[in-house]
Design brief:
Length: about 750
């Protein structure tokens, strides 16, 4: 059944032809008004959604303002306790949470803060800022997430939201923590290595946050059309930035042990920074409130304007519809009157229509048909003559009847006529392989047309080119095949490209095979570097089992065991990232550790510092900034001596009690600083019969299931306690089996390493 345009519109024609003009207008109006009404509803809903969105932001900002006042009072209480101000700000926060809209969902988070507050009021064993800061941060994040503050659509307010939610609170937290360390320093007279590391970290944090603060404000200023933000916030921003810069300079002097420093001056600088921070936060919050209020007013004005515009447009449309209907009815009346006169034989007056629409062109249309056809033929000839593809018509026996100039150019002839005169047998004169012409004819006879039929043909000068043809059959009135007509395109360059692609593909496959073989060798080398079962079982007093699986072909985790002079040295490390580069750094570290131990280096501070210096120099030479955590254990007669920073060491006592040994203060990540000797510490653990010591990398605790939930340390501890009476090998298998069940079909994102030590 052939498709017909009339058949497509036949239902519409039938419907409209059986309706009067008033009914037609009502029907068409309804069809147009339905989508228009829907579009108007969606548009107004979108504007209302923007208003609701901004109102949520404004409510969230009001809540954050009260929360910030309480946080500021908690910090001030730490150093100059205004009890009434702290209690008053807490009562204000309670009222704000009671009046908070339900969509903020602050009840659970606020309850946790309330519990921390009651505990602090009863014990007061820590400054309120230290005790309450984690819960305050969670509540701030909750309000920011649920009130759309992190999703603001405008760049100026978006970056100010980022400042209010993240940057300024982070600066305030760092200032308070620095003040806490300085107060401890004034009591202790000397900075401990841990305090120096903390001050160094906080100083770097302030420097980075100061840069982020200025960048965010710069972007907000640049994208604020009214320049209101720059006018109101430039000075407080400059005050805080200058204060932070002065403070970081003083901290740099403080960290230099050979230079004295006035601690009272540093404390004053911190106090000044907190004051300028409060001024900037208050003015930024006020500016944000102004922006959101103006935005809400703008959306409301847009609603009114849009509604008025739509009503006015509908009124004009109704007016024009009525005018159009009356115009059509007047034309119909004129046609009816003229037809009645013609029926009665009155031809004294010609048909005249008082209109300038299509009705007046009916008579003129017949007079222009011939001109239109002639112009159409001329246009068609121009299209054929100027086409960018070859166009032809041939007989069945292989002679050209029609050839446009582009076709003659493709085949190397000076004109279309020269092509028609010289080629009389297409099969033998044009096609390099004559059987392609036969295949061409057979395909058209079967399918009536052919598309993208590729062949190699001769040009007049004897050179060759590749072409693709699309053609159809030409038949006479009796249905007999008499010839073909179609188009030709030169695809010689395409063929050359295909050959080049094939060559490059073959070359790439060879490279892939070579790289695969090299990675296999590297993976095998990594496996060979792992301790053998014989080495693990030879340790007297310990039952040891280890496991390592890289996230890719090779990884950056490792563990090792060496026995020197009756002592057993155990090491476990984790290079940042995974893959070939991390594997290279791992091998470098393992080689350095084994070499130093084999050469009698027993001092863990010197050993770790030497390994760190080797990694620091080599990674900089490689142009890499990889670093790693590394912990060294020395075992002898039930005693474990630990040095170096890594994940926590888990002790599972024979009675099921769990102890977590934090290694944060026992070392420093290798490869970040050239000298880490002052950060290296040491601790000793006593193992009794049946006790477990478990070492691992974060590839286990951070492994995710298909729901993007982490495996976690608590789950691993549950498995360890449940299987603590079994051998180290059985315990290791139980943990890895439980981990694989947790991961299920999820991809492994990091290397997995586990080492189980059980005291015999």
């Amino acid at each position: 059944m052939k498709f017909s345009l009339n058949s497509l519109f036949e239902p519409a024609i039938c419907l409209m032809s059986r309706r009067s003009y008033p009914q037609k207008f009502v029907l068409l109006s309804g069809v147009f008004l339905l989508p228009l009404s829907l579009a108007l509803y969606l548009l107004l809903s979108e504007v209302q959604g923007q208003i609701t969105f901004a109102q949520k932001e404004l409510r969230g900002l009001q809540y954050l303002d009260i929360l910030q006042q309480f946080n500021r009072a908690a910090i001030q209480y730490t150093y100059s306790p205004p009890v009434n101000e702290l209690a008053s700000s807490w009562n204000s926060l309670i009222k704000a949470d009671q009046n908070a809209p339900a969509y903020l969902e602050t009840k659970r988070t606020f309850r946790a803060l309330e519990q921390e507050w009651e505990y602090w009021r009863q014990s007061q064993n820590n400054p309120p800022f230290v005790a309450l800061q984690p819960s305050i941060d969670k509540l701030r994040q909750q309000v920011g997430d649920r009130s759309n503050l992190i999703l603001d659509p405008d760049l100026d307010s978006y970056y100010l939201m980022d400042v209010v939610l993240l940057t300024l609170p982070a600066i305030e937290t760092n200032l308070a923590q620095i003040q806490e360390i300085i107060s401890q320093k004034q009591l202790q007279k000397n900075l401990t290595p841990w305090q120096r590391a903390q001050l160094l970290t906080k100083r770097d944090n302030l420097t980075e946050l100061n840069q982020v603060l200025r960048k965010n404000f710069r972007v907000a200023f640049e994208n604020n059309p009214s320049a209101m933000l720059q006018t109101s916030l430039s000075q407080p921003l400059s005050d805080l930035s200058d204060s932070l810069q002065t403070l970081t300079q003083s901290l740099a002097i403080l960290l230099n042990e050979d230079t004295g420093v006035d601690f009272e001056q540093v404390t004053q600088q911190i106090t000044l920074s907190l004051q300028t921070h409060a001024q900037l936060w208050n003015q930024t919050e006020s500016a944000l409130s102004t922006l959101l209020t103006l935005r809400i007013q703008g959306f409301q004005q847009r609603q009114w304007v849009l509604s008025l515009f739509v009503l006015l447009t509908l009124a004009i449309a109704v007016y024009l519809y009525i005018g159009f209907y009356r115009s059509v009815m007047l034309t119909i009346a004129s046609l009816r009157a003229a037809s009645e006169r013609m029926v009665t034989g009155d031809q004294s007056q010609p048909l005249r229509l008082n209109t300038q629409d299509e009705m007046s062109e009916v008579v003129l249309a017949f007079n222009t048909i011939f001109d239109a056809l002639r112009q159409a033929e001329a246009k068609f000839r121009g299209i054929v003559e100027n086409a960018v593809v070859g166009i032809y018509q041939t007989t069945l026996d292989g002679k050209f009847l029609i050839a446009n100039p582009r076709l003659s150019q493709l085949y190397g002839y000076d004109s279309s006529q020269q092509l028609l005169d010289q080629i009389t047998d297409i099969k033998h004169q044009l096609y390099i392989h004559g059987d392609r012409r036969l295949e061409f004819i057979q395909l058209i006879e079967k399918e009536e047309q052919v598309s993208s039929f590729e062949s190699q043909v001769y040009r007049q000068d004897g050179s060759t080119l590749w072409i693709t043809e699309s053609a159809r059959a030409v038949r006479n009135e009796q249905g007999q095949l008499i010839g073909f007509e179609g188009t030709v395109i030169d695809i010689s360059q395409k063929k050359r490209d295909e050959l080049e692609i094939a060559r490059l593909t073959e070359q790439l496959q060879g490279e892939n095979l070579r790289m695969g073989a090299e990675l296999a060798v590297t993976r095998r080398l990594q496996q060979m570097l792992m301790p053998s079962e014989k080495e693990l079982s030879s340790v007297v007093g310990l039952d040891i089992s280890g496991f390592m699986e890289p996230a890719e072909e090779v990884g950056g985790d490792y563990y090792d065991i060496q026995q020197i002079n009756g002592k057993t040295r155990i090491s476990i490390g984790d290079v940042t990232g995974h893959g070939l580069e991390s594997n290279l750094v791992m091998i470098m570290a393992q080689t350095a550790v084994r070499t130093l131990i084999e050469n009698g280096e027993m001092d863990t501070t010197r050993l770790l510092n030497a390994v760190n210096r080797t990694m620091y120099d080599n990674t900089r030479r490689m142009g890499s900034y990889k670093n790693m955590t590394l912990v060294l254990l020395e075992y002898e007669a039930g005693l474990l001596h630990l040095s170096g920073q890594h994940e926590e060491v888990i002790l599972v006592r024979h009675n099921g009690t769990i102890e977590q040994i934090d290694t944060f203060e026992l070392g420093f990540p290798l490869g970040l600083e050239s000298d880490i000797s002052e950060f290296v510490g040491k601790t000793t653990l006593q193992l009794h019969t049946g006790d477990l010591a478990v070492l691992y990398t974060d590839g286990i605790t951070e492994a995710m299931n298909p729901d993007r939930q982490q495996y976690g340390l608590e789950r691993m501890q549950e498995v360890l306690v449940a299987h603590r009476h079994q051998s180290a090998e059985q315990i290791r298998r139980a943990v890895i089996t439980d981990l694989r069940d947790w991961i299920h079909t999820q991809k492994i994102f990091d290397d997995i390493t586990l080492l189980v030590l059980k005291q015999q």
